[in-house]
Amino acid sequence: xxxxxxxxxxxGSAVAPRSQMGFSLGWHIILACLGVGLPGLILFLEWRGHxxxxxxxxLLARRWARAMGVLFAVGAVSGTILSFEMGLLWSGLMExxxxxxxxxxxxxxxAFFIEAIFLGIYLYGWDRLSPRAHLMAGVPIVMAGALSAxxxxxxxxxMNSPQGFTERHGRLVSxxxxxxxxxxxxxxxxxxxxxxxxxxxGFTVASVxxxxxxxxxxxxxxxxxxxxxxxxxxxxxxxQIVVGDWAARYVAAEQPAKLAxxxxxxxxxxxxxxxxxxxxxxxxxxxxxxxPGGLSLLTHGNTHAYVAGLDGxxxxxxxxxxxxxxxxxTMVGIGFFLLALGAWLAWSWWRRxxxxxxxxxxxxxxxxGVAAVIAMEAGWVTTEVGRQPWIVYGVLRVKDAVNPAGGIxxxxxxxxxxxxxxxxxxxxxxxxMVRRRPVPAAPQEHDVTEYEVS
Length: 454
Hints:
- The protein is mostly helical.
- It is 71% helix and 7% strand.
- Strand 1 and strand 2 form a beta hairpin.
């Protein structure tokens, strides 16, 4: 259903702030994932290059490091926009609870500064530091990137599991920021997000080299460019599925309305089925595949366990079921596709000590990057939309947190224009870097030396 333009621009309307924040976060989180996952891969390649003396490892590390510098700069811009949006769009949230959730944002700022400082040292010191010192300069980048993601997600986890404050008559009388930061949702949500960042990075980078190999580039450089990030991502995938089950069990215990929306479950019942696909309307899920007792088994370890449905939730507190259900199914379905891809790679390596030679394997890897990004975005939609109508679960509604000032709606088209410009500029710069320093068809030691000093 189309939203009237007047509703978007109306003072106090939540449509424009939600659209703007969702678009900003959805764009920035891709760069944030690469910022978390790329440094570790680059350090591994550099270490491996020094250990083996093999040219291709060092060439890959150098090229990826330059790309990381560009992505970090662009991510800093989009992250700054998000920080301003928190206060500009959600004044009701920050006015009431800014002192509660301010600590993780403050610590994340320090982690960001550490990451920026050592990234500069790492990029500038490539030919100026000893190999050991240069490698060590990259370690804080890896740690700071993961910590930045951790502390930001801590703030979001608090919105799903609010604690660490006492409120009387609409005013805070006691704030315990450490308790707020380390809430019940912190560990499953942060672990799930950091592993997702590793998966997005690994599959995205591998997909670039899969496309090149499909075009005939089968040299050692491109094989390593595919195998290193792909192996990394495939090893993380089964861990992510286990953590996803952990996160789902938390949701079942603490946010039953979100779980019911994820599964399209209207009627509370014992032995609730696991539902795959389908569309929800007239208080029922139609066209889905139902596994009897599956949801009870997954959430409580018993096929006859009781699962609460949407019938026990007031109508004005139910999340939009179709969005949440389809997003959840998309995330899970892609997760199992990526798990199967990893099993294919492991089977071939166990049998022949080499990756599958089938073009279909390369085609699957080529789409795995986009698939991983879609799964990650779908997971965030499930988390955020599944919490509706609450911005702070059970405490503050979205409509009460939005900035009531007029004109907020005009920010969304401006924001889209800014991000389109950023996207075009980022792609142009990365492509220019590749064209300016093309990879030799069969890179030799002298080729790498010439490349690295140019």
